[in-house]
Sequence to fold (528 residues):
Amino acid sequence: MSRPPARPDDEAAFLAAYDPREFPAIALTVDIVVLTMRQGRLNVLLVERAAPPFQGCWALPGGFVKAGQEDLDEAAARELAEETGLSAGALRRVHLEQLGSYGAPRRDPRMPVVSVAYLAFAPDLPDPRAGGDAARAAWTPVVGLHGGGTGDRQLAFDHAQIIADGLERARAKLEYTPLATAFLAPEFTVPELRAVYEEIWGEKLHPGNFHRKVLSVPGFVESTGETAERGGSRGGPRARLYRAGDARLLHPALLRPDREEGVR
Amino acid sequence: MSRPPARPDDEAAFLAAYDPREFPAIALTVDIVVLTMRQGRLNVLLVERAAPPFQGCWALPGGFVKAGQEDLDEAAARELAEETGLSAGALRRVHLEQLGSYGAPRRDPRMPVVSVAYLAFAPDLPDPRAGGDAARAAWTPVVGLHGGGTGDRQLAFDHAQIIADGLERARAKLEYTPLATAFLAPEFTVPELRAVYEEIWGEKLHPGNFHRKVLSVPGFVESTGETAERGGSRGGPRARLYRAGDARLLHPALLRPDREEGVR
DNA sequence: GTAATAGTGTCTATCAGACACTATGTC
DNA sequence: GACATAGTGTCTGATAGACACTATTAC
Fold:
């Protein structure tokens, strides 16, 4: 596709037609819902805000987009690297995708700010480091986070909604993609994979049927020929080890149980 | 969720920390992929640009977001109404959802512009009206549009990619939602519904199996008790009429045939 | 009449899920 | 030894798709 070069005339014409009252200054940020599994529980990365607004509240990691210097995906990857302190190599094992954009008129009390939210699936990562305008950064268990219970950390802006949307996207993605493996080490067992599904879907799955199903989907996992060092935490034989396969979509998909309810 | 009111201090502090070189001015637009069925073919709404850049090229309808005055969804609905000339009532029958955001560094040669793309499914609509910076507006058959063939209209910016992403989203949505009915009149026949699937998926479906499948999915369609005025265009009995049901998701889903290929 | 279509019946291969069972580990 | 777990076998009900068939309509 050919693209005409920028000409000063164009920009001048554009700026002349630009009415600041109709199009006031707007800021663009990326915010990232980074999900990981720690001790078998789903965690999300949060930072404590050191400055107003929402000072002292917890928020998603993120920052302003360097307009014109980076693509949105690059901005998200940059913020992710900055907030987690991950090397470029470790980042390659993290799945990152765009979740959606949020632009309610007064979601930021200072000025119009539109946030492009991203969703990341990561294996167990080291503790994050605080930095920039964050007082602290911490992995936070997802359970109860969006329920509004008394123990909840108060979330800034509309980040509770963004997290809820990210969790729903994650639940759906496990159905038809092999991305559950992104939460695990490069080599993993089928019971470990099942634990990821059970934690994110919030439901116990049948061990035998799950095992057979995973192995029957072409390209989901491939055997390493090895077995785990130890058996299950409470006994049982040592499980076989697998790597992620080359499939990008699961056929047939692993469907969540129950979904008859809540469909209407 | 409590939200502190905007305080002048906050804004001043923010602007003081704002480095224009690091965060140059950025503009935000919404662009809409409006899909409809006309004479049995899938069409997308395009406008011809009357001003540089890409003067004379065709582009998606859209415009600048009125920052701080409207949500992104509202901006998309407003642009859709402006470009199609639809009444508020007619707009209620149009499905509108966010598709994704596009922010490659020099996608607009004038200045950094991030576009929040939306996807709309509409029944057969009247001819659009041109307006604003559009010389013309026209429904354009989708076939061959993204193939880069000789007959293609040259598309501005990255709109060819946005349309391709919208089409892929549409294909997926037909699988697990009843949104194919959004392309049809309030009352429709099963063969008409099948024609929508065949056109968007680009595959012929088995008439008998499709018919039984649609009626077996709870809440997909509900009978009106009436039958169509005429039989098929080339003969056959008159089909029964249905309305869209109350399901928001299809269970079980209507899966596309073939997908074994291209999965890896 | 001819040909195409709407809709139903039927058969088969596949799949999801329930249940049973053995072998192998932890404690 | 007690008990939980990994993995396999088997059965059943649901489903997708192929095929056949009848009735109805346009031309």
